[in-house]
Amino acid sequence: xxxxxxxxxxxxxxxxxxxxxATALDEDLGGWPGRDVTTQATISPDATVTGDIVxxxxxxxxxxxxxxxxxxxxxxxxxxVAPTVKAMVADGDRVAAGTVVVGIEGVGHVVLIAERTIxxxxxxxxxxxxxxxxxxxALEGTPARVLDTRKTTPGLRELDKYAVRCGGGTNKRFGLYxxxxxxxxxxxxxxxxxxxxxxxxxxxxxxxxxxxxESRDQAIEALDAGVRFLMLDNMTPAAMATLISELxxxxxxxxxVRFEATGGLTLETAGAVAASxxxxxxxxxxxxxxxxxxxxxxxx
Length: 300
Description:
The chain is of the alpha/beta class. The chain has two domains: 3-135 and 291-299, Aldehyde Oxidoreductase, domain 3; 137-288, Aldolase class I (TIM Barrel, Alpha-Beta Barrel). It has helices at 14-29, 37-42, 65-78, 108-138, 157-166, 184-190, 193-203, 216-224, 237-248, 251-254, 270-275, 285-288, and strands spanning 48-55, 59-60, 84-87, 94-95, 100-107, 145-147, 180-182, 209-213, 229-233, 258-262, 280-282, 295-299. The strands form three sheets. It has a six-stranded parallel beta sheet with strand order 6-11-10-9-8-7. α8 (216-224) links the parallel β8 and β9 (229-233). α1 crosses α3 (65-78) and α3 packs antiparallel against α4. It starts with 13 loop residues before the first helix and ends with a strand. Keywords: Glycosyltransferase, Pyridine nucleotide biosynthesis, Transferase.
């Protein structure tokens, strides 16, 4: 099965979330259990607070599960009671500036120590989800879907790709292990498109294969070698439309072929690219260039 065919409603992996929050807290607190020299010096450990996680700009929220996990881990580190968390919205919801997305009540030490880790992760995830939603909206009315890539922040791929799903996008492969993707350097190393495909089938039989092509000749070579997923790299919409039309007319010969546009795509050109007949548009910028969504913690 191609990665694009996997369910796109998968929740954030809980084991991953626990690990990444622990790493982030170690980074912020200087190890286990660590310390917050400002909060622990200026606020009584018995003091309680109430507050809200508030979005400062319109967007799509994602990663809200980070909040309870972070508060729980901070409480465990310092032998305190975890604050209560009340979610007002759900991941994937579009919200307006000023919306309270989560209410928090509990020990002030826990809330303030957890604050930055929470905001770093939720703001990032929500930024990716918001950017992804813009692409989904640009493709409305077409059958094309927007895909993410492996251009993620190291260590945060699970969160980045979850955020893409929250924004309505589709996950492409998660790593180098779940799908073979033949690109120009692989073709050079193997000597040809055909050679690269044959080598993969010998070494990893049963692994799905996709091939990035830059010309009609490479596309035909990949199809003749049995691949049925072509990535059309840096082609104009007109060139893609011509090639896709020709190959769709050869369905009796090749069967169903799926096409992905890749390279240099923008929101302004998304509609024209989709009109070429591609099934997917892959956009590395969903995860490598999305600005964060401005989110803050406001204590009452």
